[in-house]
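ok so for the tutorial part 2 we go from a plain amino acid sequence to predicted structure tokens. step 1 is just haveing the sequence, like this:
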Amino acid sequence: MERGAKPQGPGGTGLRTRLVVYIDGFCVYCRQAGRLLRALDWGQRVEVRSFRHDESYRRFGIAPEALEAAMHAVALGPGTFRVVSGFAAVRLLLRHLPLLWPLWPAAWLLERVGWGERAYRWVARHRWILPDPGHCREGACSRK
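step 2 — the prediction. this is what the tokens look like for a chain of 144 residues:
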């Protein structure tokens, strides 16, 4: 936690911290989760972006291959940032969205018994990828 930041919710995230969450914009489940996150973000502190449509993740040193494997969250503080992925990103989101705080104990328990990251990886491997035809027509779907 940053010096001088006031703790908030489980885990004590700073009040000034914002999150940028990179999801797979071709994944049906991921897009639904992004819409849900936006609806639950009353404080306007979480920004959900599709890494398929927005390459701003490059400035944080995140590789596209890593984003294909797992959701990433970037915690932005004054003059600094921290990148987490997978189940750690889920836990960070739980801390930033007060309406999800009741789920924090379950996430903590899943992590303690070693099932959190395992469950996240299973869901990530079994997600449905449905490319946006308009996006691919512009040549953005080709591998570089």
